[in-house]
Specification:
The complex is a heterodimer. By secondary structure, chain A is of the alpha/beta class. Chain A has a single domain, classed as Beta Polymerase, domain 2. Chain A is built from three helices and seven strands. In chain A, the strands form two sheets. Chain A has a five-stranded mixed beta sheet. In chain A, strands 6-7 form a two-stranded parallel ribbon. In chain A, a hairpin with a 7-residue loop joins strand 1 and strand 2. Chain A starts with a helix and ends in a 38-residue tail after the last strand. The mean pLDDT of chain A is 87. Chain B is mainly α. Chain B has two domains: 63 residues, no CATH class; 133 residues, 3-Layer(aba) Sandwich (Rossmann fold). Chain B contains seven helices and three strands, in the order H-H-H-H-E-H-E-H-E-H. A three-stranded parallel beta sheet of chain B has the order 1-2-3. In chain B, strand 1, helix 5 and strand 2 form a beta-alpha-beta unit. The longest helix of chain B is centred in the first third of the chain and has 20 residues. Chain B starts with 20 loop residues before the first helix and ends with a helix. The N terminus of chain B is likely disordered. Classes of the chains: A alpha/beta, B mainly alpha. The interface between A and B is medium-sized, with 17 and 14 residues.
Chain lengths: 158, 203
């Protein structure tokens, strides 16, 4: 699928929503979209463009804002597609993709845990790799490596 | 419980168990096989004295405890629990080449049957409370070996956000084994050092 064709379809379907498609590294392309258009774009890509598989969701900390990256795979097109959106770092939250692709569940838990991006309407947004009660988002750039004596970690004893 | 000097207040026909010649002069010492022929007032002081000496020995830890100590330290059952690459060396120590079973060390799969917890690998904060639970499920007496640099002090991940800097923050550790990972000989040496420790403590 050519990037230009995808761009055309998206511009037809979502005129003036600030969604742009650019070529990316031999993949089907990279879609930059505003957070408000997330669910509509997800449903369009899954139902109309046959991107049925969500490979991963990742969070990136760019200090003033945080980026959420989705990688989609289409079995019919045999190609990957990257989605990218940016949310403000003061209140980083975004609509969850679990209603469109259930596999987003654990990936979004990890993105919340590591980079601190909240996913609204997520069915079970709790810690994945760290114990319950862990109060840091350790992959943020503002997180400093501590000497072990300084790092107080609450361990819930079950 | 009366002291061993019970013969002072005893009546004349007291069959003192110590069997000193002075009491034998009063009355012939009763052979043990004829104890059923003793009258009650003769039998009870003898039994009391024998029991009190037994209890005194047991209270000083001289009677049963050395037997348990010897048996326990020669049949340490570690928990079959692998955390990281040290678990490969742990498994290798029980293989044909090193054969830790010749020291009576048999890994068991249930903490209820174990008296030795070998923490072999990196302990993260996520697994920390599971380790504490396993330790608390083990019956007393129990010992802990921190195997490798990660379990000893966090190793190369000491400053990481997810790693416990030393398992002694969670459970009391008896033996630390250095190495990354320690070879099976080092693990066996650590277990034999633990046996020495158990013998010295006399638990």
């Amino acid at each position: 699928m050519a990037t230009d064709e995808l761009n055309q379809r998206i511009q037809q379907r979502f005129p003036d929503r600030g969604i742009t498609v650019e070529p990316f590294e031999g993949l089907a392309g990279r879609v930059l979209f505003p957070p408000a258009a997330a669910l509509e774009l997800f449903r369009f890509l899954r139902d109309d463009r046959s991107f049925h598989h969500l490979s991963f969701v990742a969070g990136v900390d760019w200090k003033s804002e945080r980026e959420v990256v989705y990688a989609l795979w289409s079995d019919t097109e045999r190609d990957y597609l990257l989605l990218s959106t940016r949310v403000d770092a003061s209140d980083p939250h975004l609509e969850s993709a679990t209603s469109v692709w259930p596999s987003a569940n654990w990936h979004e838990r990890e993105a919340w845990e590591m980079v601190g991006i909240r996913f609204d309407h997520h069915p079970d947004l709790r810690h994945l790799l760290m114990p319950d009660g862990y109060e840091f988002h350790p992959l943020l750039r503002s997180f400093k490596l501590h000497e072990p004596e300084e790092l107080e970690v609450k361990v819930r004893h079950v | 419980m009366s002291a061993p000097s019970a013969s002072v207040s005893a009546p004349a026909p007291s069959p003192s168990a110590s069997g000193t010649p002075s009491s034998a002069a009063l009355e012939p010492a009763v052979p043990f096989i004829e104890i059923e022929g003793l009258r009650t007032e003769q039998f009870i002081p003898a039994a009391k004295e024998a029991l009190s000496s037994l209890i005194a020995e047991q209270a000083q830890g001289k009677l049963i405890r050395p037997v348990f100590n010897w048996a326990g330290r020669n049949s340490l059952f570690p928990l079959h629990w692998g955390l990281a690459c040290c678990a490969i060396e742990f498994a290798s120590a029980f293989g044909a080449r090193f054969d830790a079973e010749r020291f009576g060390i048999v890994p068991r799969s249930s903490p209820r049957q174990c008296d030795l917890l070998i923490v072999n690998g990196t302990v993260t904060w996520k697994v920390a409370h599971k380790l504490i639970t396993l330790y608390e499920q083990m019956p007393e007496p129990k010992w802990v070996i921190a195997m490798g640099n990660c379990a000893t002090g966090g190793g190369p991940f000491r400053t990481a956000y997810s790693v416990v800097p030393g398992v002694d923050k969670l459970v009391p550790v008896d033996i630390y084994i250095a190495g990354c990972p320690p070879r099976p000989e080092a693990l066996l040496d650590g277990i034999l050092k633990l046996e020495e420790l158990i013998r010295e403590r006399g638990e």
